[in-house]
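agent> fetching stored inputs for the flavin-adenine dinucleotide docking request
agent> found them:
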Amino acid sequence: MESVAEFRERARQWLESQASYRTADTTTQRWGEGEFSVTVFHDVSDAEEIEHVGKYKAWHHTKVAAGFGAIAIDPAWGGLGLTKAHDAAFKEVEAQFDVPRDHEIISVTSKLIAPTIEEFGDEAQREMWCRRFFQLDEFCCQLFSEPGAGSDLAGLSCRAVRDGDEWVIDGQKVWTSTARISQYGFAICRTDVDVAKHAGMTAFLIPLDAPGVEVRPIQQMSGGASFNEVFMSGVRISDEMRVGEVGMGWKVALTVLGHERSSSGGSSRGGGYDELVMLARHVGRTDDPQIRQDLARSYTMRRVREWVRAGAAARAKATGSSGPGGSITKLMWTIEMAHTSAVASRLLGASLTADTGEWGTFAWNEHVLGAPGYRIAGGSDEIQRNIVGERVLGLPGEPRVDRDVSFAELARQQRGG
Ligand SMILES: Cc1cc2nc3c(=O)[nH]c(=O)nc-3n(C[C@H](O)[C@H](O)[C@H](O)COP(=O)(O)OP(=O)(O)OC[C@H]3O[C@@H](n4cnc5c(N)ncnc54)[C@H](O)[C@@H]3O)c2cc1C
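agent> prediction call returned; pasting tokens
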């Protein structure tokens, strides 16, 4: 297999033939020059979002054709079958070039849903969906959370009832990111109410243009509406859209969530140390001892997260399981984002809340308002701490008094019956 260093060099040469170096790169960016964005959630219209995703998709297909796309993916699904280290090396070089930027829907489709179908789907489903989702031909969002089931996902009540070769789905999902621009939703539904809640769930792929599906946007405080409510009334899907055995939905869901934690822990979304240093220089605070401490902390957090993530990836490769490593890096990322928000706020004072038109100042507002979202998405900070407490530190588990009670009985108890 080609070494990572050789692959990186070959990738750089190819990228140089395709695009120019990014002038607005933060390592070379100068105050007032180019575009400045530390946005966590983009505030764009559906049309702009579809255009952005379309450009990324076209760029992805160019990479695939040149042998630089789907790098760590199985050749059976059009990938190169190289290692995650090759993938990371390509991404590192690619980030220096002016090419279409990644989007949340890309990682949900190709890093969360596609590998889960690869693991739980039958042969026909793998043939049908893996290539499609790994290659970003179509997109899939995650239909897990409900108004009454978030952290306690196993309490979900969206029903799927079998009717011959079909399933009929009724219920509501919420906080569904990218549902308006996805063709499919990967849903966990309740298929048996007479067994304990973790045992009565099943996973399905739902075409979002099926009759009975209604997607309604939810407005965010940072602007934009990247997530949605999804209502399903009498939605009929074939049994071929069931992923995994009936009753295995909890295991499937945990696999998706494990991939989600691992991939979000590596995010650089919303900027961080480089942008803070540039801002501190501009406002003349780099001699301030408090700010110096803040910046040192920001740099340290980023570096330690990178190392912890590399360790977790190596362990996952060796053991075949991502384990609690993803929870640690996801938590480190959200703590780092909160620190970035706090330092930017200290540096900017009132300029954070009043748009004076000055370059690189009010834009931080979108970071401060967006960052808290990721303390909740993909499992809240408290839930990640529970996982680390129980599975890394070996602390006593949370009381799980409802573990052996059937879902129907729990529902009766909740109604006070
Ligand atoms: C930006 C964003 C994007 C999202 N995208 C999607 C998506 O695409 N698809 C999807 O299905 N969902 C999505 N979600 C939903 C997300 O997964 C849930 O919001 C999350 O799991 C928390 O559930 P909840 O909102 O019901 O809060 P709750 O579970 O009601 O929690 C409320 C509070 O109680 C705390 N808490 C709950 N249980 C415990 C416990 N056992 N110990 C300690 N503290 C606890 C929580 O940490 C939180 O602070 C998204 C959310 C956000 C913010």
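agent> quick read of the result: The first strand starts at residue 140 and ends at 143.
agent> awaiting further instructions
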